[in-house]
Structures are given as C-alpha cells and as structure tokens.
Amino acid sequence: MVDLSREEILRYSRHLMIPEVGLEGQRKLHTSSVLVVGTGGLGSPVSLYLAAAGVGRIGLVDYDEVEASNLQRQIIHGSGRVGDLKVESARDRLLDLNPFVQVDAYSEALDSKNAYEIAEPYQLIIDCTDNFPTRYLTNDLCVLTGKPLVYGSIFRFEGQVSVFDAKHGPCYRCLFPAPPPAGLVQSCADGGVFGVLPGVIGTLQAVEAIKLLLGIGEPLIGTLMLYDALDASFQKINLRKNPKCRVCSPEADVHGLIDYPEFCGVNHDSASSGSAGLELDITPRELDEKIRRGENLVLLDVREPVEQQVSILAGAVNIPFGQLANRMGELNREDEIVLYCRTGVRSARALAILAAAGFKHVRNLCSGINGWARDVDPSILQY
Q1: Does the active-site annotation cover 128?
Q2: So what's the pLDDT on residue 270?
Q3: Which domains are delineated in the chain?
Q4: For the chain, what is the mean pLDDT?
C-alpha cells in the first residue's frame, strides 16, 4: 500500500475517522482510477468530488469547448474559461482543488476507434454524457472489458442513476435493448434542464463510484434510482438481467464495438450543426432576402411557447416539435414552409417528419433563430 504524505493525511482526515474508509480505504482511493466521459453538467460534480475524495487518477473525455450557456449548471467551469477546451478547464480546476491527484485530459470524442485505448488504464467508467450513441458505446465497452459503469441521465427536473455491472447484474442494454427513434427524445440542449439537477444526480454518481472503489455499502447494481426535483421524490426500480441481451447474455451477438451513431440513427455532423442537409437548409441571410422580396412563406416555429418569451420572428406560426405529428393538419402541403427553432436541431428533425408526411416545399433555417440574431437582426436575444 502507498504511503500518504502529511499533507494528504490532514486533507483526508474526515475520511480517516470513518470506519468504512479509514487509512486503508484512503490508500485504496489513492491507487484507484476512474474515467469520466463528459465534463458538462454531470461531469462537473462527479469529477470535483472524485478529486476531493482523493481518487488517484481521473481521466476526462470531452471534445467540446466551454460556452456561456454552460455556466448555469456546469460548475467546474468559470466565466474566464469560455472558449477553452472543457477538459483543460476541468483539469485545471481539479488540480487546483487537489494537487495530489493525476488528471488525464482527452480532448476528443469517445468512439469505437479510441475507446479501448482510452479506457484501458481505468477501473471503472462514469457516463456523464447526454446522447444515446455514447451511452450504448460506454455500456458495451464496460461489458466487453469487465468494468463497472456508473450511469446518470437528466432532463428538465428529472434524473436517473444506476450502476451497470454485467458480472453481477444487468447492463444498460438489458434495460434499453434498442435506442429510441432518432429525434424522438429531446436533449437538454433542446428541452432545457434545471440548473441544480446535474449537481444532485452527478453527486449520486460520485457516491456510487466511490462505494465501488472502496467496496462498501450496496451499489445501485440492478436498481434504477429516479429523482424528481419538483416534488423532492426518489423512487427505486428493480432491474433484471435480460436473458437475451445482445451484449451481456449467453446469447450475445455483439462481441466488439460497433458504429454507434449508425446504430442509434444519428448523424452527428448534421445534428450538432443544426443542418437538415445542404438541399434542405436555408441560411438566415437567404431567408431575409426572401422575406424582403415579399415571397409567400410560412415561418413555422417548432420551439416551446416559453421560448418565445426570449425571441420570436414576426408572423411565425408556433407548433412545438412534440405536437407536430398530431397538428400537421393545420399546415398546407402546398405552402413553402421554413421551419426554425433555437439552433436548427429540432427544426431539422421536424422537417424530416413533414417530408415523410408528403410536404415537398420545406426548408430548415440552418443555425435557427440564434443564427438569425447573429447574421440578420442583432436586436434579437440569443439564448
């Protein structure tokens, strides 16, 4: 067992007084290693508490940069780090919090090509992401490498936490054998999230990870914990191993990492850019020219009504994305329709729904109303 310095003994003194931890447990944490996938809302409290607890090696995986809109919930980052790589911002904060830990920063997206190499040095993985391809990737990676996976998910006021360990219980695929249809489930970027919620769920993930590293308590293996911030309620749902699970059962047919964006029906390039494809997109300046020429257009706003309190385009019809399938009868299939949302992501999905229903004259406002504010009308607020 490694020896802790005088400074570390003092730093972890409140742990050393707990029978379930003590000096032996603190040494165990010091020699432990955890990979945190995502340094956003969930990754912030997870990594902060792992570092504070003295987990000796922490890996951070994220390809994104800090944006001003992150700061409402991603508490590991500060205003001065806007524009910086998230993993670098997070690493600096963790080392400032605890210089006795090692922090590895991987500024790249976790995918089937790099996942084995990145995950190899770590004992367990914590999923702090917000997209289905990475969730299925981290699950399969953990099953195939025998590592536990601490799972967390958030949306608006609700969150979920579980521990998936195929050696002792079900995996994520046992619970969700197949992803939902692309675009059916909104992300936090599309639907919003209560700023404090990631702190609650991320802290619970950190608790589960530290319990696993110390071998104490009863981890949430085979249990899905649900939290509702609005009524402060917790529920536990017992999970069973799927005897026909494609990755962790005796009948498994997934023996290696696959193309997860394809499996989930997600095109990362178009989804992240708010594009429906070159032939279906219209830029803010192109739309502005059409409006100035007096062309007969229907502007279809697929955002939630609450978002119109921030910004709106004059004359737009509002049908929220979640209601579009049931309200298409309000639209004329012969009209030229330009759909828009905040950034173009929801409107691109909405366009696909209309196109499949026989609407032939539909375009997507690439980059959404935020793009309109940047390129056409700076008086409109961005959010």
Answers
A1: no
A2: 46
A3: 32-266 (3.40.50.720), 271-375 (3.40.250.10)
A4: 95
